[in-house]
Amino acid sequence: MHPKHRRSLTALVRRGVMTAESSVQASHRWLPGVRALENLFGRLDLGGVMGFLDRIFRRPPPPDDSWKLAKAEDDGRSLIFRIRTAPPAFARKDQFPFLLAVCWKYESPNEHGMPSKDDADRMGELEDLLLPVFEGKQKAFLTVVVTGNGVREWQWYAADKDAVMKLANQTLGERDPFPIEFVFQDDPDWDAYGRFLGDG
Q1: Which of 37, 42, 118, 163 is the most exposed place for a label (fewest CB within 10 A)?
Q2: What's the Cα-to-Cα distance from 188 to each of 46, 93, 102, 118, rounded to whole Å?
Q3: Given a cut of 60, is residue 68 above it in pLDDT?
Q4: Residues of the chain with pLDDT > 90: what percent?
């Protein structure tokens, strides 16, 4: 698994394509349900679903494990953003200077550009493998997940490129290959994350 370069979906935020969002507080402990809804958001009105989420997520999660959902369009197809509302407590800008995009290109079976159920399930498996390893060892932390128009992209901030790639290879090496690319960029001020949070 080697880093490759490709256009990041962060560029879509610079173009101002996010048109609707919600600050529903959803912890990662609810990920299975959130992921199912995340895939449906490409076909549903986001605002109508938010009331449902409000009823589900009654107890606020820890501040560094809170996420909001947003919906946008790119070339007429839906994009769904899952955005962490604050970095975890262990994360400091001077210690996590590298933006890492993990990109999965897929063929959408529908006109909305969302992944198939099988692809979405494997994407969930990938996230469940990487998240506890990267964050548990405090080598990287997840900030944003973008899905739509044939791509899912997980955006992380990493402390050390080599250490993260070593962990990824150790974690995924014995499993069936995932169709992913790793893309590193220098972003010591967390500008990409700040754009998703509305800070830039």
Answers
A1: 118
A2: 33, 6, 18, 36
A3: yes
A4: 50
Spatial CB neighbours of 191, under 8 Å, sequence gap ≥ 6 = 200
Distances from the Cα of 14 to the Cα of 112, 148, 175, 190, angstroms? 22, 17, 36, 14
SS3 state of residue 124: helix
What CA–CA distance (Å, rounded) separates 122 from 127? 9
Round to whole Å and give the CA distance between 4 and 35: 26
Give CA–CA dist 39/79, Å, rounded. 10
N residues, the chain? 200
The rounded distance, in Å, linking the Cα atoms of 195 and 9 is: 12
DSSP 8-state class, residue 155: E
For 3-24, the pLDDT digits (tens) are 433 344 444 443 334 444 443 4
Q: With CA atoms as reference, report the closest residue to 37 among 21, 49, 25, 24.
A: 49
139-157 per-position pLDDT tens digit: 999 999 999 889 999 999 9
